[in-house]
Amino acid sequence: MPELSVVVPVHNERDNILPLLGEIAAALRGLTDFEIIYVDDLSRDDTLAVLNAAKQQFPELRVLRHVSQSGQSTAVRNGVKAARGAWIATLDGDGQNDPADIPKLLQTRTVADPAVKLFAGWRVNRRDSAVKRFSSKFANGVRSRLLHDATPDTGCGIKLFERAVFLELPYFDHMHRYLPALVQRAGYQVQSVPVNHRPRTQGQSKYGIGNRLWVGINDLRGVGWLIKRSKRTAVEEL
Question: Is the Cβ–Cβ distance between 108 and 181 less than 8 Å?
């Protein structure tokens, strides 16, 4: 059984698959037992064909495919459900997250408080367009004021978390943007870790102001309601 499962959601990312797989393998081979789970969200290009061919080169690779397009949060959740590792690392499939940061997250975990169940990447130096940087900064500011999740960058795709804790969380579309608040709601701690961020060199971004900023602000009300309605208590067996 692998110790770590790397989950990568993709949609129309055929040119980024092989380079990213190579970087994941280079970062983790010899470091830990791992598997790589790509979840294809019904790509319209030949992403799936490239992934299936890549199994010959990367024996750690497993490929899942949605039968209907369902979005990034659903892809992450289905990847986590299929994973065999006790810990999950996630990466965006566009190549902007650096797989070399996964060992850094694993090392941070070894010295962290056991109550920390989510290590969230923090893109200190964003390499995105001005529109994406603005929408992300604005949404992060609003989210932080409303949810008090003490996390500077919830939208970063590279994260490390315990599988069992993730599966305890309430599921909804776009939940991947609120993992720190949801993990804290469940009674655990979150630690932000500075990570590398790279410009997109292949393919096209799937997000803009319309499906990132405004949708995210609307979701805040629902997440805030979940936090207010949460109840936790210790349990004793008699």
Answer: no
CATH of the domain at 151: 3.90.550.10
Q: Is residue 237 part of a domain?
A: no
Cβ-Cβ contacts under 8 Å for 20 (sequence gap 6 or more): 8, 91, 93, 95, 99
- Number of domain units in the chain: 1
Residue 236 lies in a domain: no
pLDDT band at 83 (very low <50, low <70, confident <90, very high): very high
Full residue range of the structural domain in which residue 171 is found: 4-228
Output the pLDDT for position 134. Answer: 57
What does the CA dihedral 96, 11, 205, 147 come to, rounded to 10 degrees? -80
The reply to whether 48 falls in a domain is yes
| Selection from 160, 127, 166, 120 nearest residue 143 by Cα | 120
Res 206: pLDDT: 58
The DSSP symbol for 144 reads H
- Rounded to 10 deg, the angle between the 14-28 and 47-54 helix axes is 30
pLDDT at residue 228, rounded to an integer: 82
Calculate what percentage of the chain has a pLDDT beyond 90.
68
Q: Is the dihedral of CA 26, 116, 82, 204 positive or negative?
A: negative
Q: Is residue 235 part of a domain?
A: no
Q: Which residues, in sequence order, are bridge partners of residue 192?
A: 120
